[in-house]
Amino acid sequence: MTKPPDRLYLLYHELRPSRSDYSYIVETSQFEKHVDLFLELRKRQPPGFYPEITFDDGHLSNFEFALPILQSRSVMAWFFITTGWTGQRPGYMGWPELRELQQAGQQIGAHGWSHALLTHCDPSQLQKELVQARLTLEDKLGTSITTMSLPGGRSNQRVLAACRDAGYTQVFTSGPKAEPQPAGATVGRLNIRGDMTLEWIAKLFQPESGVLSSLQRQHQIKSTVKTLLGDKLYEKLWALLNRQEPDTDAGEAAANEDTAHYQ
Ligand SMILES: [Zn+2]
């Protein structure tokens, strides 16, 4: 039996119908082209990396714009939800939207309770971010929740152990990495930016292009710099360099972004 191809999990956040300078946002028509490309790549012989789609934060645009595109092509994606924002924070999905996503066959996972960086949480905060987030999703959606994506991609051994103790069997990170199948307890992902071209994205899936391995090297260097500078200073510098909209997700972008040219 031939070995299944390694999977490359992609990370999206918000979609918008019009173009945005904010690198965190992908234009809806671009996303549609991405999904069509992924469908082609999944059939390609010999296979490259196999694309999988994930969304973090639970933005309302996931429901309004991404779901119809996915449904019309019978594509399943993962949606990681900041549970405490659900039905509370303008611009984010409420329980009716999440139920509809789930009934449409999409996968729901947790993304913490308040989007706090888990590495900064004490044990009682971790309990809320991990356990209360999971139990509330399970209660409201009537399904078991076993996957978690790390806010801001931040993790350490203590956080990963707390995720396991809280009942998560898979934790999705923000480190760009192709995953052998079946995927293990941590799953790497690559953040998709609005300024990445379709051609560049297609190259990501060809292991021989070296694009993914070069992103991995940059990610490792940045993680080291971040550890040396500390989160706060690193995020300020990153926002300055990337025309970041002032938003709570600046930290997440800082964890995910690479300074390469995506063209
Ligand atoms: Zn997030």
TrEMBL record:
One Pfam entry name: Polysacc_deac_1
Domain of life of the native organism: Bacteria
Source organism of this protein record: Tunturiibacter empetritectus
Designated name of the protein: NodB homology domain-containing protein
Keyword Signal: yes
Chief place of localization: secreted
Location(s), subcellular: Secreted
GO biological process: carbohydrate metabolic process
Record-level GO cellular component terms: extracellular region
GO molecular function, one term: hydrolase activity, acting on carbon-nitrogen (but not peptide) bonds
Residues annotated as signal peptide: none
